[in-house]
Amino acid sequence: MSTSFSRECLNLYLAPGIADFTEFDAPDISGQYPQSTHWIANHFLNSILRGSYSGKFKQYAINHLYRAQVAFSDYHEARALTREFIEAGKPSAPHVRVYFRALSRWESCLLNTQIFIDTLNKINLEFDGEKVFCEGDNSKEARAYSIANKIKHYGGEIRNGSCAETETVPMWLTNSGISTRNHEISYEELSIIVSSIASLADEIQDPISFREQNHT
């Protein structure tokens, strides 16, 4: 017979809202991008056999593909672990190890998404393009970026005493999405961002095709 714990105990000593996290739905987009595990390898072979990027764009392309491949993989691993958490446990006796494994994959997905956005903004700046989002516009990209910032600077917040004691982790999972004290992004919104990253990775993996399509 498994031991049960109160909602207050679980939320206080594990993660905010863990006892209330009972439903989960995130789109599976893996089938839309069959080359996702091969983006970097494809780019390597295309660069040798067909043609390569030059100058700084070569660095940008490799970083794009690396971050895209990791973020895409993390998204689907996090999705599988989160489904396992919901199906294997119950609110009063959650599957703690699976929850924190899932949380770590969501964190990695968001951090790699943030790096991808930074690199894309650099490219757009050089080609007179627009930023992915404007600061404070509350877009899904802006909120994903802010959550990644929270993860990145959480150790400093603990050191400075600027986060509440109830914030045992920088972000947590809810029925509606991924949350911090100030920001939330739904699982569907994050899937759209990851899908956009994947679409660009599909294009960038072949330098010749990318130049022809974008006239660069």
The percentage helix is 55-70%
| Rg over CA atoms | 19 Å
The largest beta-sheet arranges its strands as 1-2-3
Major sheet summary line: 3 strands, antiparallel
**What is the general shape?**
elongated
What's the count of strands?
3
Mean pLDDT: 92
Termini, distance in Å? 65 Å
Give a quick set of tags describing it.
216 residues; mainly alpha; 3-stranded antiparallel β-sheet
Secondary-structure map:
Blueprint: H1 7-13, H2 39-49, H3 56-88, H4 96-126, H5 140-160, E1 172-173, E2 178-179, E3 184-185, H6 187-204, H7 207-214
Antiparallel strand pairs: 1-2, 2-3
Walk me through the structure.
Strand 2 (178-179) and strand 3 (184-185) form a beta hairpin. The chain has a 3-stranded antiparallel sheet. Helix 3 runs antiparallel to helix 4 and helix 3 packs antiparallel against helix 6. It has helices at residues 7-13, 39-49, 56-88, 96-126, 140-160, 187-204, 207-214, and strands at residues 172-173, 178-179, 184-185. With 216 residues, it is an all-alpha fold. Helix content is 60%, strand content 3%.
Q: Summed up, what is this model?
A:
The protein is mainly alpha-helical. It has seven helices and three strands.
